Amino acid sequence: MALVKVLVANLFAGASLQKLEAGQVYDVDDSIAEKWIEQGKVEKSTEKKGEKLVFEVATPSAPVASGASDLQAKLNEALVQLEHARSEIEAKDKEHAGVIEQLKQESAVKLDAETKRADEAEAALAEATKKAK
Predict the structure, then answer these.
(1) What's phi and psi for 107, nearest 5 deg?
(2) Are 20 and 6 in contact (CB under 8 A)?
(3) N or C, which terminus of the chain has less Cβ within 10 Å?
(4) In DSSP terms, which residues pair with 6 in a beta bridge?
């Protein structure tokens, strides 16, 4: 433990975030004291006595694991459903791509036939016009 004197007005510490008064001396853990000294928030004190600060870690009051396993099971089920839906979408996309390609080919054949018929009609009209003169 190290005795430190607070230099800044806005330093909070502890599990309850108590405000540390500037100019007061506190007894804190060595690792915390080193961090604060490096940051310029405190300086080492030569005084004999200071208020002891205890840093606590709060633990959850109720066990979380039981609810987490149910939630994880629901997440896993949703993931399976999502993957199933994604595979169905990919299959439908492939099916639609095949149908679109088939329609393109059919349209190209029909267009070629109509173009040929139109060319033949134009040629016949040109020939009929020549004969009429």
Answers:
(1) -65, -40
(2) yes
(3) C
(4) 42
